[in-house]
Amino acid sequence: MAAPIPDENKVNYQFLGRSGLKVANICLGCMTFGESSWGLPGQSDEDLSHQILNRYVEWGGNFLDTADVYGQGRSETIVGKWLETQPRDKFVIATKVRGNMGTQENVNNVGLSRRHITEGIDRSLQRLHTDFVDLYQAHQWDAGTPLEETLRTFDDLVRGGKVRYIGVSNFNGWQMERVVNTARTLGINPIISLQQQYSLASRESEFEAFQVCKSAGIGVLPWSPLKGGLLTGKVKRGVQPTEGRIGWAAQRGGRGNFTDKTFDIVEAAEAIAKSRGRTTAQVSLRWLLQRDVVSSVIIGATKLAQLDDNMAANGWSLTAEEMKQLDDVSAPEATYPYEGIQRQNGDRVNPALQDVYVRSIA
User: Fold this and answer.
1) Which residues form the NADP-dependent oxidoreductase domain (predicted)?
2) Residues forming beta bridges with residue 165, ordered by sequence position
3) What would you report as the CA-atom Rg of the chain, rounded to the nearest whole angstrom?
4) Residues taking part in catalysis
5) Rounded CA gap, 156 and 150, in Å?
């Protein structure tokens, strides 16, 4: 039986962006639930997935993130079966739409068109066994659909009660700016969140996308906060992993990023972890939890022990000095024009201005 969790170590609840919705500061990502359609190893069957969900609730968690394409609906189905046994109003359920959920012969079964979105939400609701989704997210930009069509469709879903709030995922800076301005021009519901890859080893979105978030009051939901397991410290400098999910990613040129800079980051986090009696993963997650643009950090877990270790990033804080150490070692290279913008505006930050594009997040 798992050990009881002291109240002081449980999650905190924060507003999601500028909305009135409160979510746990650690969100449980459900991509690991069910057989992966991409061949990822270490996926959880239904029984283990439900155990992980139950344990997450013991930590005080209320925020679950999935997507229709995770296991081609299997993740949503597993979450939905569990949700049937729970008080629905206790949880914030997030899912996504854009990916191809059918045969390649159906050319309209992908993207962010009105047709695909309206079909996608109905099928997600069926799999999730609920009559509304709290947060519905565009999984990626769709260059084939007018943005106005996408945003009006999302707005219709909010007005119709099938969706409570809308967000986006994997958008770059100019795309975020267009979304914000288009919603304002149309006078429709704005997005409240950006789900983005963000970690000590992946900070490029700070240059533009997150500046839009800070200016517009959009909450950031980091995914892959441990860079596919690299920021746990399990992989050492000069060693190419071959086992597990990180080995799978390395073999495909995915989240590897096995550079000297990455291992400088890992070793800095390890040193702090050792001095604080924490794990390297907890330090890496804690750094994200203390970033002012972040509303909730999305973690994934394939084992109960892994979940407990990650959730223990709560209940303590990194010092200002420790945050600076991690900021400095992980700082992304500011190439043109970002370097010049930062340098020329270093002493030109006016806190009375709403526009914060002229300064870096860090």
Assistant:
1) 25-329
2) 135
3) 20
4) 70
5) 10
Backbone φ, ψ for residue 109 (5° rounding): -95, 35
| Phi, psi angles (nearest 5°) of residue 343 | -65, -45
Q: Report the C-alpha gap between 208 and 359 in whole angstroms.
A: 10
Looking up tokens 């526009």 gives 355
Question: How far, CA to CA in Å, does 190 sit from each of 64, 151, 187, 218, 308?
Answer: 21, 9, 9, 9, 35
Tell me the β-bridge partners of 202: 199
Residue 143, token pair as written in the block: 């260059």
Q: Please name every residue paired with 92 in a beta bridge, in sequence order, or none if there are none.
A: 63
Distance CA 155, CA 161 (A): 10
Helix (H, G, I), strand (E, B) or coil at 334: coil
The three-state secondary structure class of 328 is helix
Is the separation of the CB atoms in 234 and 246 below 8 Å? yes
Instruction: For residue 212, give the DSSP letter.
Output: H
Task: Give the span between the Cα atoms of 154 and 136, in whole angstroms.
Answer: 8
Whole-angstrom Cα distance, residue 194 to residue 221?
A: 6
146 and 186 Cβ atoms separated by less than 8 Å? no
End-to-end CA distance of the chain, in Å? 42
Q: Give the model confidence (pLDDT) of 299-316 as tens digits.
A: 999 999 999 999 999 999
Candidates 3.20.20.100, 3.20.20.70, 3.50.50.60, 3.90.1580.10; CATH matching 12-229+287-317: 3.20.20.100
Backbone φ and ψ of 167, nearest 5°:
-150, 180
Q: Token digits for 296?
A: 């909730």
pLDDT 10s digit of each residue in the chain, 362 long? 688 999 999 999 999 999 999 999 999 999 999 987 766 777 999 999 999 999 999 999 999 999 999 999 999 999 999 999 999 999 999 999 999 987 667 899 999 999 999 999 999 999 999 999 999 999 999 999 999 999 999 999 999 999 999 999 999 999 999 999 999 999 999 999 999 999 999 999 999 999 999 999 999 999 999 999 999 999 888 787 666 666 656 655 654 578 899 999 999 999 999 999 999 999 999 999 999 999 999 999 999 999 999 999 999 999 999 999 999 999 999 999 999 988 898 888 887 775 554 444 44
